[in-house]
Every structure is written in C-alpha cells, then in structure tokens.
Amino acid sequence: MERPAWAPRSIDISVPSVSRMYDYYLGGSHNFEVDRQAARKAMEFMPGLPKIMQANRAFMRRAVRFAAAEGITQFLDIGSGIPTFGNVQSGPGSRPGRARDVRRPRSGGRGAQPGGTRGQ
Fold this sequence. Notes:
By secondary structure, this protein is α+β, with helices and mostly antiparallel strands. It has three helices and three strands; from the N terminus they run αααβββ.
C-alpha cells in the first residue's frame, strides 16, 4: 500500500484509525481499506453510524456558522490530525473572510498550524 502525501510517516496505515473511519463515514477520501473494513464491521452492530457521524458534522458546521454570524472571528479546531471532509476551515461562506482558525492535531502529526483566512 502506497502512502499518500497527507499521511505522516509516524502513523501506521496498516492499522485502522478511528479518525480515518470517521472520515469514511463522512464520505471523505482520507482513509484506507483497513479503515473501511473496520467501519463496515462496526456498522454490523450499529448500522446508523454513518448518519450519526454526518449529523455530528452538520451540527458542528451550523455551530460555526452561527458563531461567525454572532461576530466570533477565531476558531480552535482540536483533533484535526487529518483533513476530514467538511471540517471547520473548509467550505465557502462558512465564516466571514476575517475569521481565523488554528488546528491542533491530536496525534501531534503536524503541530499547531494557523489556518489563516477561510479555506487555508
């Protein structure tokens, strides 16, 4: 299995990751077959997992939009070790152009990174 550029060398891509399983449930592309197999196995016990994860992500996006509309201009995204689908810093119009985010990967993969203006 070839390692994509987004996967730090410090992670074992032959072992399922909850973060990558979450990405799979969201319809993202930052996951591997081992993650998809584990995700499907979990769905045998709880078939609604993808819908639950998608509802969780939808709530987060609504909360960010609401906070931005109320004048919040800084966001801290904790646990964003991989670029999961529909994250805080993505999506046109999710925040005003002056809004900034800082991402701190839980895995320590890349360290804290200023997100800059939306979309970076």
